[in-house]
Inverse folding.
């Protein structure tokens, strides 16, 4: 087909491959699984995405649904494109662009104590997010597909790695040879 799926479209298509859904039900699955934590998809964009995917022939209404409450399922072309996009998403390394990297690049304009204080604040935020996501993962564990646990594990591993990076960065900034 030659068309690339956006991350939001790929998320919607993947959920529709799991089972046919109405827009509201789709939003409930996204909310319940905490998917807005790691993908830019808002409730207001779901119906737009569904119309776009239908127009492109990637999804179709399920027979027997009402015109006001359309339930969608992927077409064979939609399944094929989703499978290929999923394979690519898993295999391809994409560069992160977190704002912290810009802050770090600009950190020389701050005095070292201000940089260290900001990183301590980030460390506290990362700790709080680790606690929150761990609790959310534990709530989701029962009955969820194995990929759901893997999503949380990935996010937790990234936060844990960031926590270690922050600690090492603070230590290097506080080292006597850096301060003099």
């Amino acid at each position: 087909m030659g068309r690339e799926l956006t991350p939001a479209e790929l998320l919607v298509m993947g959920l529709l491959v799991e089972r046919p859904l109405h827009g509201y039900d789709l939003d409930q699955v996204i909310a319940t699984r905490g998917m807005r934590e790691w993908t830019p998809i808002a409730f207001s964009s779901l119906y737009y995405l569904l119309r776009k995917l239908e127009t492109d022939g990637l999804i179709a209404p399920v027979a027997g649904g009402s015109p006001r409450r359309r339930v969608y399922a992927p077409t064979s072309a939609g399944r094929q494109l989703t499978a290929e996009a999923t394979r690519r998403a898993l295999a391809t390394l994409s560069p992160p662009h977190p704002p912290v990297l810009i802050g770090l690049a600009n950190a020389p304009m701050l005095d070292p104590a201000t940089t260290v204080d900001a990183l301590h604040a980030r460390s506290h935020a990362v700790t709080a997010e680790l606690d929150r996501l761990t609790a959310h993962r534990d709530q989701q564990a029962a009955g969820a597909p194995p990929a759901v646990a893997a999503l949380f594990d990935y996010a937790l591993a990234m936060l844990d790695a960031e926590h270690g990076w922050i600690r090492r960065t603070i230590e290097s900034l506080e080292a006597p040879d850096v301060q003099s």
Summary: The radius of gyration is 21 Å. The CA atoms of residues 128 and 143 lie 26 Å apart. The helical segments are 7-18, 23-32, 43-55, 76-91, 99-106, 112-140, 146-174, 176-179. The beta strands are 21-22, 59-61, 71-74.
